[in-house]
Structure formats: C-alpha cells, structure tokens
Amino acid sequence: MPEMRRWRTPVAALGVTSLLLAGCGSGAASELAEIDEEAQGVGAMGDYSVGETFVAEEPITVSLLYRDHPNYPLQDDWLILEHLEEEHGVTLDPVVAPLSDFEDRRSVLIGSGEIPDYVPVMWPGDEIPYISGGALLPVSDYLEYMPNFTDKLERWDLQEEFDNLRQDDGRAYILPGMREDPFHNWSVAIRDDIWQDMGFGDPETWDEFQDQLEQIRAEHPEMIPWSDRWEMNATLNLAGPNFNTTGGWGLGNGLYYDAEADELVFTGATDEYREMLEYFAGLTQDGLLDSESLTQDDDSAVQKFASGQSAAVASNEEELETLRTAFEEIGEDDAEVRMIRVPAGPAGDNVASGGRFDVGMVIGAHTAEREDFIAMLQFLDWLYYSDEGLVFATWGVEGETYEIDDDGERQLAEDVDIKGFNSGAEEHLSIDHGFYNGVFTHNFGSDTEIFLSLMSEEIVELQDQMADKEELPLQPNIPFDELELEQAALWQNSLTDQVHQATAQFILGQRDLDDWDTYVAELEARNMNEYVELANEAYQRGQEMLDELDEAEGHGEGE
Predict the structure, then answer these.
(1) What whole-number distance in Å separates Cα of residue 157 and Cα of residue 150?
(2) Residue 142 near residue 377, CB atoms below 8 Å
(3) Nearest to 129 by CA among 409, 442, 485, 519
C-alpha cells in the first residue's frame, strides 16, 4: 500500500521516542563551522547549477538508510547503482532496513549517533524527535549548494511552506519532497457498474452520496452499501476538509488552525469535528455504513466489496488493482470499479493545505565535516530535485529501460514492465533495475509531467477532477522548544488516543452524540486547554521568528 500523506505539524509524530532522544548529544541550536569550500569541496563541480548534470570531479561514496521493500528487494547489480557509479562518480553504500522494521531501525540509528550520510523516506514532522540530539544537519544553512531545490522552491511558490518546517532556532532539518501541483491519490472507490445501472453520476456532496447509498440499499437489500477499510482513517482524512476539520490519519497532533481567529484549536473538541462524526454515525445507524468498518482487517473489506456485499470502499491507485484482482478471483466478470471525486461538504468543496510537500530526507550532521561535503549536497540535489535526476530515478536509462518516440514521448523498452504498462515483459523496472523506487525519489514526485508519466489514465483524470477544489489555509508551524516538546508530546498522546477511541464509539453508536459535553470534559481532564495554550504560545513565537527571518535573511537562503 503506498503511503498516504499524513498532515503534520512539528509535534505530530511525537511520543516516547522524543523523550528518549532529547538528552542525546549537543543542543539543536549549536553553531556549525562555516564551510571551507576548498577543504570541503573535494569532488564538487565548480559550475554546478540548474540544468547541469552532476558528475563528481573525484569519485565519492555516500551512505544511506535503505528501506528494503519486499516487492523489489535490493540487488547489488541494479542498473541504477551501476549507472550512478560509472556515469556520475557516486557509489551508494546502503545500510539496509526491511520495510517492516524501517521506522524502528531508523530511530535506533539516528538516536545512537550511527546515522548514515542521509536518510530518505521521512515525512516532515518525523524529524522533530531527533533534532535535540544533534544528529541532523540543519539543511537550511546549506541551500546555496542545492540550486535545483531552491529553484523549485521559488518557482513553485513553496517558500512559506518550507519556512513552516523551521524550528525554534530558525532552521529546517528536513528536505521535503516537492510537487509542482498537489497530488490526489485517495478517494472512495465505487462499484461503477451499480452506479451506472442506478443512473448515478459522481456525488457532488457527501449528502448526495448518502442519498445514493440509500437508493442502492433499497435496490439491493442484501448489501450494506459501504464497508470501509483502514479503520476509516483514510476516509475521515479525506472528508475532514469538507467539514473544515480533519480526522483519521490527518488528526496528527490533534491541533487545527482556525484562520479567522488566527489561533490553534483542539480538533476533536470542535463543532466541525462533531458535525463530521454526526454524518458518519447517521450512515451507520441507517445501515448504509458497515459497523465493522472501524475494526475489520483489509482482506475482509476487500472481499465484501468483491463479492457484492458492499458497493463502496476507500481506495487509492494501487488498491484499485487489488480490488480488480479480487473480482477476477471470485469470477465477478461484470463488476467495474473506479474512484470518485471526493465530495464537497457543509464547509465547502475543500482540500487540506500542504498537498505539495511530501516524504523527504534528512542528512546526518556529521557530513558537514566531510571533505566532499559540497559534492554530496550537489549529488542529492541533482538526484532528488533536478528534472534530469527525477526522470532518471523514475524511468531509468534512455536506450536501456526506455526510449523516446517520434513525438518526443517516453516509452518503456519492450522488455521492461512497470504497473502493467508492458504486461508480460521479461524485466521489471523496479525489481530488476531499481528504478521507480521511493528510496531514490520522493514518492516519485516533483515536476507534474514526470510524476504523472507512469500513472494510470484514471489517476490522471482524478487530478483534473480535484484541481478546482479550494485549498484550506496552511497549518502553521509550532516550533516548541525542547522542554515544551516533551510536555506537548505527553499531552498529545493522551488526548489523541482519547479522540480516536471516542470517534469510533460515536460513529458506531456505542456512545450517543448527546454525550458530547461529557466527552469534551474528558479531554479537558487530559490537559486539552493547557496543550492548546502551549501550542498557541509557540505558534505566535514562531510567527515572530519567521517575520524576523524574512527581514534579516530574505527567506532563509542560508543563515
């Protein structure tokens, strides 16, 4: 299952880990020595800039924490590794961690001071627990050596979003993946054959979707129209912006920005969150949403959909193929499935902010002492942020894994397949060559044309359908200091656990929504008001810090 973007602000992923790491090493705000470009420029290109192919002047070796996916396990003879070494002078030295254990392995290596040169596959916000230990490079200090990153930051108007990653010392410690345009890969999948038989189009609103489910239930009484998966975490995340709130995977640190009041509120206690729960609780009460949606495993939800016990389920591009395969295995030859445009809601036709930042990378602080430090930064900038590097990491090598046709379009080589584009081909772009691999690209993203070039037509169409939604205000930076971070993490974990538990109870009807005031009092007993007050103090302090940074540094292109 591909990763869904988790809406985070800096304390979003904190827990016990942050407390364990907080005392390690030197403070996050300690000064780094200025770069001696002669002493630390071994292998660096003197004329490296946007549009230039990175080729190390002298060979360099760069270590990374490699997330080993069981569907395409790492191989020493991959073309991507050989080509980087032979044509670009870079030998990659992977420290391998299996996908199933990746986050734990990452935590141990960073916390123990054994971090490789860089760690890809890290969501913005996940870096926060490791900053105080001094293990991470404050990458915003060195952006002058990353021209492709800074070029896209400026051209795509992402400076504000990048500044949102800065901590209480004014620095950012993660290089996010960047997209030219937001990407929408998650929605509700429907039995399109049933929708067509009923004469339905895509529902424009969640209320219209409820009407459609009611009509399907009347026509197919043997069916519970909607049986969801992922404990409804994807659906609540999708629906949230249309109720001017968030939920599920998007609940994050439990805080939500009220743009009109210019302050943070606790999401799970708002009227908007209650309104969203009332909607889904109503579906459950009316027999339109399977009560097992918050507890069943994925296989059960897929089988219900494939066997005709349900007509809707949350999905994404990859899971659409899972559903179609399930139809084939059961013999449902007439069944059709597609994802709908996410419906609008009482708060409007919205999407959450921040849809153009994605999973990124952190760099070990120790690399600043390398004699080839600048060359390493240039290489990472080229591979992950230049258009040429993105095409290379996504498509491979022209003449070997793909060709350019007479119309100037890329075409996979006849003997290479990925995602069924050359079904039955002898070789696989990821398995046999290492390309189209999330370790070497940030969720295959950046330039829209490159990103969508290996997406299915229906996913490209979904982007067009979602493009006119209103993007909500950016969730702001909350630069807690070290002591605040520890306290906030304790309060957050207790509060969000309570919200998740109560959310399930309300939707399932195990707890009446008339009990809402009692539920809010339970949150207050868990220090909700103190948490919100602490967050708003840090938020206001962060805004002042960013204002000063704008005046003094011109958006922080190197402090």
Answers:
(1) 10
(2) yes
(3) 485
Tokens read off for 151: 């070029």
Q: CA-to-CA distance for 5 and 469, rounded, in angstroms?
A: 18
Burial of 16 (0-12, 13-18, 19+ CB in 10 A): exposed
Distance CA(426)–CA(416), nearest Å, equals 6
Spatial distance between the Cα atoms of 493 and 254, rounded to a whole number of angstroms: 9
Express each pLDDT in 436-462 by its tens digit: 999 999 876 678 888 888 888 899 999
Torsion 144-183-66-477 (CA) sign: positive
Enumerate residues 6+ apart whose C-beta is below 8 A from 74.
66, 68, 94, 96, 434
41 touches 375 (CB < 8 A): yes
Strands 312-316 and 337-339, by their bridges, are: unpaired
Q: Is-contact 29 144, C-beta < 8 A?
A: no
Taking the C-alpha atoms of residue 92 and residue 498, their distance in angstroms, rounded to an integer, is: 44
Q: Which of 487, 475, 489, 28 is nearest to 265 (CA)?
A: 475
For residue 401, give the 3-state DSSP assignment: coil
Over residues 38-97, the pLDDT tens digits come to 899 999 999 999 999 999 999 999 999 999 999 999 999 999 999 999 999 999 999 999
Q: Which long-range contacts (CB under 8 A, 24 or more apart) does 463-467 make?
A: 463/181, 463/183, 463/184, 465/202, 465/341, 466/182, 466/184, 466/341, 466/342, 466/351, 467/181
CA distance 76 to 504: 46
pLDDT number for residue 182: 87
303-347 confidence digits (pLDDT tens) = 999 999 999 999 998 899 899 999 999 998 899 999 999 999 999
Q: Are 253 and 11 in contact (CB under 8 A)?
A: yes
Report whether 382 contacts 148 (CB < 8 A). Answer: yes
Q: Which residue type is seen at 398? A: E
Higher pLDDT, 550 or 296: 296
Question: Which residue intervals of 141-287 are DSSP H helices?
Answer: 147-155, 159-163, 192-197, 206-219, 233-239, 271-285
Evaluate whether 491 touches 484 at the Cβ level (below 8 Å): no
DSSP state of 249: G
Amino acid at 304: K
User: What residues form DSSP beta bridges with 263?
Assistant: 258
How many H helices and E strands in the chain?
A: 19, 16
Specify the pTM: 0.83
Q: Residue 292 — φ and ψ, nearest 5°?
A: -85, 0
- Report the b/e string of 291-319 with b at 16+ CB within 10 A: bebbebeeeebbbbbbebbbbbbbbbbeb
Encoding tokens for residue 277? 């729960």
CA-to-CA separations, 314 to 152, 190, 209, in angstroms, rounded: 33, 9, 14
Burial class (CB in 10 A: 0-12, 13-18, 19+), 72: buried
CB 186 within 8 A of CB 341: no
